[in-house]
Design goal:
Blueprint lengths: L6 E5 H4 L12 H7 L8 H32 L9 E7 L5 H15 L5 E5 L7 H7 L13 H12 L5 E7 L4 E10 L4 E5 L20 E6 L2 H17 L10 H5 L2 H24 L8 E6 L3 E8 L2
Parallel strand pairs: 2-6, 2-7, 3-6, 7-8
Antiparallel strand pairs: 1-9, 4-5, 8-9
Helix pairs in contact: 3-4, 7-9
């Protein structure tokens, strides 16, 4: 992969030795509640991969805060609280949300003096009615399906220290924005933002999401492997939707299972895979760290930008 020429490469055995003063602050039960629906992760992975990463992030955060104070002193201005933003990107079904929630948990535990919050960019998808009005329902997840102006405005407000910034809530159960429901981001010390478009450069914006991030992670895997995880997740979502007519997957759960998987395969082939190849994967080389996964969601390689 030529785009990795500017990265240091480490396997799990190398990476885990970079920080060995570690106690995993989670039980197996707590870890199960954090991980994504069809993701797989062990307490050993937390110890070997994520705790050294949290230590690296703590060094980044210290440098970031010191620079804010140094800059304020140079300008003869009072230092102000500026949130440190961590961006997490990658394909659908690759396990971004597990990485995001786990980092939120670990950073909150190890740095209790810092307020840590998490959002996903799903909340900035246009509602289904608007996607249909624009005739782009089959482009959901592509750059044009997001209200990027609203997302950039949100990040501007967060970096500026605005209180109680609202984020629309997206429901994967109903597959739409929930009207009148919001998450509130209120002056965090650390904000984690997760989504397939975190590293993208939309043509209709002069500034980008990545302009606001202070450390970014791309969760990577072979496309064929991600397809397997996508279909596995689809099956499990159908299995949980039988009792809820409001669930997006209820109609699939009530019908022919083989036909439902044909539909899922078609969605992957015509929407998710082209979006990965055209819009998501090309952003990989913009990340500060790349986590590469193999079978069973095992992280086998980590790439850290050299500069």
């Amino acid at each position: 992969m030529n785009d990795l020429i500017n990265y240091y490469s480490f396997d799990k055995e190398e990476w885990k030795h970079f920080y060995e003063k570690k106690t995993v602050p989670l039980t197996a039960s707590e870890l199960r509640s954090i991980k994504a629906f069809n993701d797989k992760i062990s307490l050993q992975d937390v110890s070997d991969i994520y705790i050294p990463l949290v230590h690296l992030l703590s060094l980044q955060l210290t440098n970031f805060n010191n620079w804010q104070e140094t800059k304020a002193n140079f300008l003869h201005k009072a230092a102000r609280k500026v949130p440190f933003i961590i961006g997490i990107s990658g394909s659908v079904a690759v396990g971004k949300s597990t990485t995001a929630r786990l980092l939120e948990e670990l950073l909150s535990y190890y740095f209790p003096e810092n307020k840590v919050q998490l959002i996903t960019t799903d909340g900035f998808l246009y509602p289904t009615a608007e996607l249909k009005r624009q005739g782009i329902m089959d482009r959901k997840g592509f750059p044009e399906s997001y209200d990027m102006a609203a997302l950039i405005n949100f990040l501007n407000n967060v970096k500026a220290g605005v209180y109680n910034v609202k984020v629309p809530v997206y429901s994967h159960q109903v597959y739409d924005i929930v009207p009148g429901e919001f998450d509130i981001i209120d002056q965090p010390d650390i904000l984690i933002i997760e989504g397939i478009n975190v590293l993208q450069l939309p043509s209709n914006e002069q500034i980008y999401v990545s302009d606001f991030t202070d450390f970014s992670i791309y969760v990577d895997a072979d496309a064929n492997q991600i397809r397997e995880w996508y279909l596995e997740r689809f099956g499990k979502l159908m299995d949980t939707a039988f009792q809820d007519p409001q669930n997006h997957y209820y109609k699939y759960a009530q019908g022919n299972r083989a036909e439902a998987f044909e539909i899922a395969n078609n969605v992957w082939d015509t929407i998710d895979l082209p979006n990965l190849e055209e819009n998501i994967l090309p952003t990989r080389s913009r990340a500060d760290m790349i986590m590469h996964k193999t079978k069973h969601h095992i992280i086998d390689k980590l790439y850290l930008r050299k500069y």
